[in-house]
Amino acid sequence: MTKIAPRQLVKSDQIKVGVLALQGSFLEHLYILQRIGVKTTQVRLPEQLEDLDGLIIPGGESTTIGKLAVDFGLLEPLKQFGKKKAIWGTCAGAILLSKDAHRSQPLLELMDITVDRNAFGRQIASFEIDLDIPALESVSPESRPFHGVFIRAPLIASVDGDGKVLAALPDGRVVAVQQGQLLATAFHPELTDDDRVHRYFVQLAAENTIN
Amino acid sequence: MESQVSTFKTKKGLAQMLKGGVIMDVVTAEHAKIAEDAGAVAVMALERVPADIRADGGVARMSDPELIIQIMETVSIPVMAKARIGHFVEAQILQALEVDYIDESEVLTPADEAYHINKHAFKTPFVCGCRNLGEALRRIGEGAAMIRTKGEPGTGDVVEAVRHARTVFGEVKMLINMPEEELMTFAKNIGAPYQLLLETRELGRLPVVNFAAGGIATPADAALMMQLGVDGVFVGSGIFKSGNPAKRAEAIVKAVTHYENPEILAEISRNLGEPMVGRNVTDLEDNERMADRGW
After folding, report:
1. What is the pLDDT of residue A44?
2. How much is the pLDDT for A143?
3. Does the distance separating the beta carbons of A44 and B257 come in below 8 Å?
4. Count of C-beta atoms within a 10 Å radius of residue A28
5. Is residue B103 pLDDT above 60, yes or no?
6. In this predicted structure, what is the pLDDT of residue B1?
7. Which of A56, A97, B49, B243 has the fewest CB within 10 Å, making it most exposed?
């Protein structure tokens, strides 16, 4: 796992992060972003991507979110956005960021990862587990585990290009990857009270905007 | 690092992932495919849609497991299935089939006239219907991880869905503004578990996701329920009893996303074909009302 050095902190209230609000756990993400003092907006139409430093694609059903993105002309604007700006996908969002989900469905194909949908089984196999995520030390000096909530979760089956593994299960299976300004997690930080991954992403978005 | 499987957080969490979405009643795998292609977040397997249960009469039970299996093999989205109120063996069977959610539903003929299923005893999460805050919190007390306001299923008449949603939200508002010394008596009067009442007051909303159901037949109906404050909608007979199920299903999905945008609602409501014929709730005899089932 890659350890990323602490960086210059940017004030989070200068940053504006959108949450894709087509379907899913977008309010949960918004509440955490607001709590850490970030300006937020809900994104349902392409013009709402303007002026954003970053975007979160929430958990939900990837087939539903993908279809609505196509129907409302968001697929191409999201692809263009992700080539320059920071995007973080949780669960369904991670599937949308991937280049291949082993099934025919609309994807953004922005990250060099492939995912297996529902890799752990149906709902009855959904689980919680503490994860070791060393990269979070850049936003929080205390090194404590991050509580991962996995719901009908995908697995990141392969990581190519310059993608870096940020977290894995004890058996080595990959559940979080960063590639440049793009972040994918198979689990749901928005369902916890722990805002470290959100702060990590806001930092990523801020640095990306400055550079 | 030990993992914990099927916790209440993951049960409630799946419902959180369904928010802003439409869950569609389906009877066959073919219906399920149409629903998934239209953008449904989940499908609900049942033996007959509520409008047919009303028309045919007789005892309505859990679906044939064969049909549920076919549906699970056909779609990648979560599959829910209905068990009769109090019929914990139907629920055990549905859990053995690994359906993603069990709906202990008043749409089917109740199996027990006094007790609901002890839902804490299951790994599979449950959704239950309610008409008011007390009923919602009793179901959550029994272990439900998701609530839906009942409405009056199989009618295509949204009036009861509106009544039940307004009742729940109204009672939550009352609860938030209530002086502390009134809380225990309020809990007693509405038949709500006291601790869950306190939790609801603290959160300012039900402690689990709350969808609307029962009588939603158009994109406008779905957007109405969303503007009233529900987290998503169930559509039963409204889709597969209409003239063009695929088109109507797709329009209702879009309406739930853009529920606050009347221009988009106007556009997607055009040319949907015949809606389900429907029955006015006021024309129903008392013994035809499904929403009154549940204790």
Report:
1. 98
2. 86
3. yes
4. 22
5. yes
6. 65
7. B243
**pLDDT by residue (tens digit) across B60-79?**
999 999 999 999 999 999 99
Q: Is the pLDDT of residue A211 over 80?
A: no
What pLDDT, on the 0 to 100 scale, is given for residue A6?
47
Average pLDDT, chain B: 96
Secondary structure of chain A as H, E, C letters: CCCCCCCCCCCHHHCEEEEECCCCCHHHHHHHHHHCCCEEEEECCHHHHCCCCEEEECCCCHHHHHHHHHHCCCHHHHHHHHHHCEEEEECHHHHHHCCECCCCCCCCCCCCEEEECCCCCCHHHCEEEEECCHHHHHCCCCCCCEEEEECCCCEEEEECCCCEEEEECCCCCEEEEEECCEEEECCCHHHCCCCHHHHHHHHHHHHHHHC
Cβ atoms of residues A190 and A36 within 8 Å: no
* Residue A29 annotated as catalytic: no
Count of C-beta atoms within a 10 Å radius of residue A76: 12
Residue B173 has, within 13 A of its CA and on its CB side, a CA count of 7
CA dihedral angle for residue A80, residue A81, residue A87, residue A93, rounded to 10 degrees: -60
Residue A7 has pLDDT above 80, yes or no: no
DSSP state of B109: P
What does the CA dihedral B77, B83, B88, B90 come to, rounded to 10 degrees?
-80
- A-chain residues within 8 Å CB-CB of B41? 23, 60-61, 64
Cβ B257–A22 below 8 Å, yes or no? yes
Identify the structural domains of chain A with CATH numbers, from first to last: 12-210 (3.40.50.880)
Of A28, A29, A190, A198, which is the active-site residue? A190
| Residues B20, B119: Cα–Cα separation, whole Å | 25
Q: Which residue on chain B is closest to A129 by alpha carbon?
A: B3
Residue B212 vs residue A11, higher pLDDT? B212
Average pLDDT over residues A172-197: 98
Phi then psi dihedrals of residue B103, to 5 deg: -100, 110
**Residue with the two structure tokens 């949450």:** A19
What does the alpha-carbon distance between residue A202 and residue A210 come to, in Å, rounded to a whole number? 12
Which residue shows structure tokens 């299996």? B69
Q: Residue range B216-233: average pLDDT?
A: 98
Give which of A169, A172, A175 is closest to A187, Cα–Cα. Answer: A175
Rounded to whole angstroms, how far apart are CA atoms A39 and A16?
Answer: 5
- The pLDDT of residue A5 is above 80: no
- Using the CB atoms, write b or e for B8-18: b if 16+ within 10 Å: ebbbbbbbbbb
Mean pLDDT on A177-181: 98
The pLDDT of residue A9: 58
Average pLDDT rounded to a whole number, residues B236-264: 96
Secondary structure class of B259 (helix, strand, coil): coil
Nearest chain B alpha carbon to A101? B76
Average pLDDT, chain A: 94
Q: Which class for A197: exposed (0-12), middle (13-18), buried (19 or more C-beta within 10 A)? A: buried
